[in-house]
Every structure is written in C-alpha cells, then in structure tokens.
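Provenance and format

Records in this collection were gathered into a single text stream. Each protein contributes a sequence line and a token line. The two records reproduced below are adjacent in the stream.
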Amino acid sequence: MRERFWILVVCALVIGSASPTTAVTNHNLAWGFEVGDQFHYRYSGDFILGVIDFYVEIDSLQTIPINVTSYLEISFSSSHYTYYYENGTEMLMSLSWGAVPIGNWSLIQVLLNETSPIDYDLIDTESEWGVIYTEEYTTLVRTVTVKFSKTDGVMSLYHVVDDPEMGENTTFQIERRDAQPIPYLYIGVGVVVVAIIAIVLVVMRRR
C-alpha cells in the first residue's frame, strides 16, 4: 500500500503554512451524525487483491470551536472514530476516511481556500461537496477525487489514479455503500434450519 494511502484528501491539502484567517462566529456548522453511527464502505483497487468491506464507527464527537479560524479545526480527527471489518472485527490498519460539518458549505470552501497550499477543482452539487487535485512525484502523477455527502458531511468517495512515466495506470477507491445485512440473514436462516432438523430427529426417534 502506498505511503500516502493513509490520509483524507483535504487533510493532505492543508499540509504546509497558511495565513491566519479572521475568526468566524455564528457559522451554523454542526456534525451531521451522532456517536455510535456507522458508515459502510468498500475498498477496491490495484494495491490490494480483491476487495475490503469495512465500516467506520463514531466513538465521540469533535468539538467545533465557536470561533472558527482554520479548516483544520473542522476536519474530523481520527481519534474520534474506529475502523472495523464488515464482520465486526476491529481493523489494525487505517484507510482514508473523513468528515466535515454540515450547515455552511460556503464557509468550508473559504476556509479550505485560505488553508490549502495547492490548487484544486471544486465539486459542489446539490448532494455532494468535494475536491479533485493532483500531486506530482518523481515517477508518477497522482489524481485524487474526494466527495462528501451534503446530508451528513461524511465521505462518500475517495478515488485515486496513479499515472506513472512508464507502465500502466493504477487505481484504487473507497466508496460508501449501504450496510449489508446478509450475514445476519444467514445466521437467521441457519437457526431455522437447525430447528427444523432438531424437530425431524425428535419425530424420528418417537417412531
């Protein structure tokens, strides 16, 4: 897995110095989720064979300052959530995930503009907000797309394309999806099957 496969796009954008921003009060920013909420994803790509289904669970809510002066103050910290595989086992590795407050997307864009040391293209639709940016390395160019849901501020897509000087492009993405109740369905069906077998055995013994 690549060195930079650990950080959310906008956090990567804010590495570096930035000029102070005038404090903004009455910003109407709030988290669009609560403690205990779970958000499910699927990783797929060229860096790992197959797919990884996982979810993020919110452990605590980060405090949003009354006076917001920087994007860093509203970028959801990794100390407030935990990664789990779809079966409920905690993940030891970290994938790219993030969230931003909802309620004032114009302010978030202003804060990002004043903090980001690199150029980016803004994604701003009725349902999603995000950015597309490019990173140039010695042997490749990386294009990153990150989208957040305007409903709850949670990341909906993290898509990366690496274009090397030699060889084929490599890609990976982390895409939000609905929770999968299939394992629980299997458990329920299994219990029913076991119960039926037990009833049949009892009937046979009585004959």
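Adjacent record:
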Amino acid sequence: MADNQQYYGSPIAPPPGTRMTARDLSSGGGTPWRLLIASAVVFVLVLVIYAGMAFGYEPYINGQIANQDAQLKQVENEVSQGSQSADLSLFSQLYNIGQLNKRHVIASKLFGELEKNTLPSVRITNVQFSILSGAMILAGTAPSWQTLVQQSSAWEQDPAVASFMVNSFKSGSGAGSGAFSATVTFAAGTFMQN
C-alpha cells in the first residue's frame, strides 16, 4: 500500500495492471460520495432558504409596507390642509423662538458681575455697556491708587473677564478720593443664555 501512495498519491488507487471490482469500489471509495451528498444537502438548504425568502418573507414585508402606507394615507386624509398649514406655522414659530432663545443676551448678569467684583471701598458712578462688543466702561471713585490696583486684580481674576484696563486715574484734592475710568472686556458668551 505504501508503494501505491508513492506512485499514485492515493491509498485507494489500485496497483498497476489490476482491475477493480464492485466490492472494491463500495469498500474503498466512500469519501467522494460523502462529499457529494454533503454538497447536495447544503445546496438544497440554500434553495429552501431562498424560496422561503422569495415566496414567504418578501410578500410579508411588502404587505407590511403597504399597510404602513395605507395608515399614513389615512392619517393624511384625516388632517385637513388648513390644519396641516397651521401645524407647520406653529412648528416654524416654535423653532424660531428656540433659535432666538439660544442667541438671547441676558444683560441682568452684568449686575451680578459688578456686585461680585467691585471692592467695598470703590464707588461706581457711571456704567456704559456694549452688548455687541462685550465691553463695559466704568467711571467711579477709589480712595487711592493701591485700591484701584486691588480692584484691577479682582476683575482680572474673574474667569468671565477677558481683560481689565485702567483708562485714567486722577487723585482728588481731598484725602481718600480719586476719580478713575476703566474698561472691562468680558469673555465671549458671558451674557448668553445657557
């Protein structure tokens, strides 16, 4: 048998010059038949699955689609054209209000910033605020230059403030008073609605 494998590459190949009988074929050649039967079973399964999909599942899905389309048509017919137009107008208005609300500036936050960052010894006498630029010009009095430096530090430590700049400072004639002007620039989005 080893000689047959060496020359013919198969353990079932007959030696040269011999004939195979029916008994030899039934006992030694089972592997190709088993492979053929397994392939036929897989092929039949694929055909059955395809037939089930094509003749069972596809009509079911098409029926479900038709059912949903009929329900949509029924709802569409129940809602009048005027009602659809009113609903669309209401939705559009609500959407626009939402968009405006996102861009709404809350200027009342300015008072909280003033109160939080102004030292007790500093008096604010005038405030000009530009919503577009986010800049606020302050005018007021401070007892001394050192107090104004402390005030500057308080504003600069606030995360909502992008910059603080003293425009002018004039010492007053009396002790403990001096007029100043300063510009506070707030970070973008500080006064926007969250």
